[in-house]
Amino acid sequence: MKIYIPAWHYRARAIVQRTWGWSPIEEMILLAFDLEAGTIADIAERLRIPHQVIRSTVARLMQFGLVELRISPNPVLSTSPTGHEFIRTGRALPERTSEREMGISLVLEKVGHSVLRRKDVTIVPTHGLDHEGRAVAFPVGEQPETDETMAHRVSQFVSQSLRPGEWLRGVRTTGSVMEKKFLEVDLDGYKRGEIPEGASDSLIAAMKETIRTTILPRASKSGPSTPSSIETTFAHDKLVVGSAEHLRLFERIVGAAVSDVFVLSTFVLSQSDDRGKVHRERIYLALEDAYRRGVRCHLFFGTSLEKAKHAQAMEELHQRLSAVGQSRGFLMVHRDSIGSHAKFLAADDGQGGTVVVIGSCNWLSSPFSAVEVSAELREPMAVATALDLLRGIAVSLPSASRSVEILQFLASETRRARPALSTRSDQGPSPTARLTVLHAQDHEAKGSAQRKRELCLHYKQDGCYSRPRPIKSGRGRGASTEGRQDILFTPIRPDKAQVCSGVQI
To answer: What is the β-pairing status of strands 344-348 and 260-265?
Structure first.
């Protein structure tokens, strides 16, 4: 007997990267050359390491420009200016990498929520076939699966096929295919123990119950997501307060970028609008300079009010930046509303890392005359969480598929942050904090007054404009939480946390 249970068939191309990192021995050899220049024989004797290990390491260090040969007064090997900079600035050493694509074809069934290989199971269309009343209905009211909802499942699925030294960089969502199907289940095969690899305990139990009672199982919706919470660090100087400080921060971050800059502003002002134009011109000039350098600029606006006016203003900005004359594909100005009142600035830092700024500043419309407050995130896990949040907002815009894909890659690379070779002497310890992302359904649980100090950066999706403020109870003005998401920074050790210095929270 065969039954048919609801499922989604997902196909895409995964980008897998292999890296060749540095061993402690290789790092020790580099530090030895930085401490005192010398020959291979000198370093071998000093560190008591075989000559062949020193030779192969020197060859590799020279390939990356970290070690150089000095001729005068005597030929010696020494750390190059580039290597010296990596050591003194606390940056991770560059790595040799290679990438490959692998096809993904998986099936997500909705009874036990198993993720199965397509080649291991049989799927049939949902229409055009007579299943003779042996088909389980899809969950009522459930939204279709998307690249975003499949991301975690894909990560687990691909991890089973990775070779040593490989990691999943991301999925090319621009060419992905999601199809609604029925999974054909042979109950006689289950009796004989023919269970496909990846079948969950819930699916197996449901099939056994169906065999025993002949009653079809029920499909269920995917479980609700729980508020993500991570431990991070947040120094007091990363709480940015003031309009002038925000302008300087924007220029510094965009000026350092070499690959991508993301700007999400609730509103966009026309180029002819004189309100704060002198200050806003600095924003435009920074974007022009980045675009001229070959940096991809991803620009979004979020308001649901007067969409046509803001779309026209975004088109004017697109025309201004296009006049720089860079090649196509480097300017991604989205003229449709993203439906969110979030304010984001995200960019690579030009040194292998990424920085994200979240707060109250409307980068493309602010006159920069009010008191703006934002949090600058640089700790890798906090940055990756913020990038995922921005990706989750941008994914609702069909035209933003390329931007969403790049955000996914950035988040994956950020989570894989490599340890620095050394710690900068001018960097003191940062206060430890816990970063939590709250979605609308989680607000009531957090709505009651709390005795902890918490920095809350929040926004409403398709709601009213609001600035960072403390968590309050769900009563009184502004109590609605519909469509809102918060980012909370809660000091784990309040006696050491200074993120709230000078700000009432």
So the answer is: antiparallel
